[in-house]
Amino acid sequence: MFEKLPRPLLIAHRGASLAAPENTLEAFELASRLGADVLELDVQRSRDGVLVVIHDATLERTTDGRGAVCAQDLAALKALDAGYHHRSSTGAQLFRDRDVRIPTLDEVLSAFAHMAFNIEMKSTDPLAIDALLRCLRGVDPARVVLAAGNDEVMARLEAAASPFALGLARGQVWQLVRAAYLGRPLGERWRGRALQIPPRHRLLPLARPAVIHAAHAAGVEVHLWTINSPAAAARYLSRGIDGIITDDAPGLLEVVLRHRPNDATRRHS
């Protein structure tokens, strides 16, 4: 995955979502311009079958709309204000009534054709996987990782046998973490995939050296989310993780570059 990019990766969680409304062209443009390697985004399916870039299954948290995304046609979704609720670090609503819209996946792929993407399929609609692969037709597989937390959705992605690298679903994550805690080898079944996890789940530490080592021994990369503190990023990068997923890609660029070989850092100079 991402074979042309240096490690560790700087992955912009829903774009530069601290500074601009998440999962919008504005957030992706800012992340792209200010140093991110990978744009992380979430995909839902509209009622008329179009893949749109939005995290939640419902509209209330990030837009001025109401109800389920899948109950709305694309035209209705495009009429919503995707900057309605975003607030800056000072509490200012800088993007409300500024024509910030929910983008389609096609729009994002076209606007940022020079970028790599971590695409999480949030929709559980069985038709969404075919729609996703149609959108990605002609895209270099080295630029894309497909993720899904839902085990059934991941099973559909695996069955599609696409050329794109995959993440791990929740059930697979727990299998890997459990094996690492018990000191059991994982074998080759997930080689070439990405373990994308938070530092801990409730009281259970997930980003332990044993977990990172077990993943690497099995050929699995480790990407940690959602890390917004440079100090925390430095701590986990020192353990050898392969990528940081952050809401503040510009703020973490320097610490990520410090953990790269000198020849890789020149990419951003």
Could you explain the architecture of this structure?
This protein is an alpha/beta fold and 269 residues long. 31% of the residues lie in helices and 16% in strands. The chain contains ten helices and eleven strands. The protein has helices at 25-33, 74-78, 105-111, 127-135, 151-160, 170-182, 209-217, 230-237, 249-258, 262-265, and strands at residues 9-13, 38-45, 51-53, 116-121, 144-147, 165-166, 194-197, 200-201, 204-205, 221-224, 243-246. The strands form two sheets. Strands 1, 2, 3, 4, 5, 6, 7, 10 and 11 form a nine-stranded mixed β-sheet that branches. Strands 8-9 form a two-stranded antiparallel ribbon. Helix 8 packs parallel to helix 9 (249-258). The chain is globular and about 50 Å long.
Offer a few descriptive terms:
two-stranded antiparallel sheet, 10 helices, alpha/beta, 269 residues
Short description:
With 269 residues, the protein is an alpha/beta fold. It has helices at residues 25-33, 74-78, 105-111, 127-135, 151-160, 170-182, 209-217, 230-237, 249-258, 262-265, and strands at residues 9-13, 38-45, 51-53, 116-121, 144-147, 165-166, 194-197, 200-201, 204-205, 221-224, 243-246. It has ten helices and eleven strands.
